Amino acid sequence: MNRHLVYPTIIVFLIILFGVSYCQQQKRTRQVLSENERLVNENRGLKKNLELSSLTAQQIADRKDMQQRVEGTFVDQREYYRRNWKQFIAVNTSDYRTGLLGGIKDLKIQVRNQSDYPLDNVVVSVEYMRGNDNVFKTEQYTINNIPAKGTQSVAASNSRKGMKVKLKLISITSQAMNFCWAVNKPAPPDNPDPYRCAGK
Q1: Domain boundaries of the chain, sorted by first residue
Q2: Membrane-spanning residues where (predicted)?
Q3: Looking at the domain 76-182, which fold is it?
Q4: Of 1, 48, 112, 140, which residue has the fewest beta carbons closer than 10 angstroms?
């Protein structure tokens, strides 16, 4: 073969070889991209199905909770509040004034009732504390007629000494809730409803 024809033939052959390889590579690339797109769409569909399943499960749980609330009796609701009263009943003080050398003025004791039942009375012990945390004096106050979802307060006496006060719940009574709690009333661990008023 003529030497002048060998080089062009080799070049043409190489060009054809590279062209075929390039086409095959492009075909494989398109296949990979197509497969990736299919997987992405599949994952998107799975995610959507998972979200729908989660939403359906939440709706079922909500319906069950609502059904339990609707079917729950008046006594069941009262028992729930009795057993979990600390989540719904709280006592605190107003912003009171203290003297330069001690003494407390404008003190109010406030009871917050977040239950669905009124409270007849709440007894609170107030300790007037010196700066060294020693108790100067202790007084008890009774707050009456705290409405459901409401608050009630009573003015406490001023003190010529003391820098701060400490509150302690002594007792809570609610006929509407059938609730009788007292700090000195033991709660047996085997009694699921220990603060139900006796004999009611």
Answers
A1: 1-71, 76-182
A2: 6-23
A3: Immunoglobulin-like (2.60.40)
A4: 1
